[in-house]
Design goal:
With 351 residues, this protein is α/β, with parallel strands linked by helices. The protein has helices at 49-56, 79-86, 104-109, 118-131, 147-158, 177-194, 205-211, 229-234, 239-248, 251-259, 262-265, 287-295, 325-337; strands at 5-17, 22-34, 38-42, 64-69, 72-73, 89-93, 165-169, 197-202, 214-219, 222-228, 272-279, 298-309, 312-322, 340-344, 349-350. It has two domains: 5-247, P-loop containing nucleotide triphosphate hydrolases (Rossmann fold, 3-Layer(aba) Sandwich); 252-350, Alpha-Beta Plaits, CATH 3.30.70.260. It has 13 helices and 15 strands. The strands form three sheets. A six-stranded mixed beta sheet has the order 6-7-8-3-9-10, sandwiched between helices. Strands 12-13-11-14-15 form a five-stranded antiparallel beta sheet, sandwiched between helices. The protein has a four-stranded antiparallel beta sheet with strand order 2-1-4-5.
Length: 351
């Protein structure tokens, strides 16, 4: 059934005991991932995201809480049952974890050794290497491959046991931007073609923006904000989330440059420097023309950006709005009625 919970973490607590203190790496976290999601968990180093995701397959046992994966209480499984369940949860890592003395084909085949006939192994390896675009490198060794190719091998190996869930733990962090984008595109295609549910752990909001449909932001062991990708980008509530988004959209750099412009430095009341954020249907409106025609307010556009998130336009404008105070008040009411978020940048508060 579509849109059913495939991973449910309930009140997960992971506490590490040190000599003089206890460290809460994960602090009473709830998380639900539905079948078919590409769920991004984003946070800076030390936020607890990798520890949290290792709880899913019990590579890290929680101090407290319950872990339900594919309808099974993971903590109730014995060692044999847990090994079987883990085959349905693939993992890819930042540093690839390939065996340098084995060929690419042998690396991909490794999870199948011992319980799969040799003829079936070869057919499966050929299929997987074709899937990740490495059909011609089966006899090569890891040292002969680029970083992006090594990560493709890691993905093929993770898919060898036909998992329903794929966990990507900072899998693109060691790659250059172009290669990162290609690997993320591959993960997106696997999600669509295989119905694979993906949990993406990253400190890069750019990766989340490219392929995720849902996102959770972690800080100091807690999830501080979560929601659909569009809602998180359009209406972030926590300052950390806003910082992540402004960085990936380069809005912080744009605003710094805008503030140096004469039109901004010479700004006088009632004129206002504002950021307009709009999503979906509101981007179809002739916004600037309407403000002038209906409210006699002119908009001097100093920065503009439109992104496509999950197939939906998402735009930001930094503008100086000029007019009488009464006309500006009517303008702000009109914008809000049309689902355009207005942030007054000269006072750093919402208009």
């Amino acid at each position: 059934m579509a849109n059913d919970a495939i991973i449910t973490l309930d009140q997960i607590d992971v506490e590490f005991k040190e000599k003089t203190r206890s460290v809460h790496a994960v602090d009473h976290v709830d998380l639900t991932v539905e079948r078919g999601d590409i769920y991004g968990i984003v946070g800076y180093s030390g936020a607890g995201k990798s520890t949290l995701v290792r709880v899913i397959n019990l590579l890290q046992r929680p101090t407290a809480g319950t872990v339900t994966v594919l309808g099974q209480d993971m903590l109730a499984l014995d060692a044999r049952q847990l090994r079987a369940k883990r085959k349905r949860i693939g993992m890819i890592f930042q540093h690839f974890n390939l065996m340098n003395s084995r060929t690419i084909a042998e690396n991909v085949a490794f999870p199948l050794k011992g319980h799969t006939p040799a003829a079936k192994i070869k057919a499966k390896v050929d299929e997987l290497l074709e899937l990740v675009g490495l059909a011609d490198r089966a006899s090569a060794y890891p040292a002969e491959l680029s970083g992006g190719q090594k990560q493709r091998v890691g993905i093929a190996r993770a898919l060898a046991s036909d998992p329903e869930i794929l966990i990507s733990d900072e899998a693109t962090s060691a790659l250059d931007p172009k290669t990162t984008s290609a690997i993320l595109d591959l993960l997106k295609s696997l999600n669509e073609r295989l119905g694979l549910t993906i949990v993406l752990i990253t400190h890069e909001m750019e990766a989340v923006k490219q392929i995720c449909n849902k996102v959770a932001v972690m800080d100091e062991g807690r999830i501080i904000e979560r929601g659909s990708l569009l809602n998180i980008f359009a209406k972030p509530e926590q300052q950390l989330t806003k910082d992540f988004i402004d960085t990936t959209l380069q809005l912080d750099a744009a605003l710094a440059a805008v503030r140096k412009q004469p039109a901004v430095q010479a700004l006088k009341a009632p004129d206002q420097l504002v950021r307009l954020t709009y999503v979906g249907a509101s981007t179809d409106q002739p916004l600037v023309a309407t403000l002038y025609k209906e409210f006699s307010v002119t908009a001097n556009i100093l920065f503009g950006d439109i992104q496509i998130l999950q197939g939906t336009p998402f735009g930001n404008l930094i503008v100086v709005l000029s007019g009488t105070q009464a006309d500006l008040d009517r303008t702000f009411a009109y914008l809000k009625a049309n689902d355009v978020t207005v942030q007054a940048l000269n006072e750093q508060e919402e208009a």
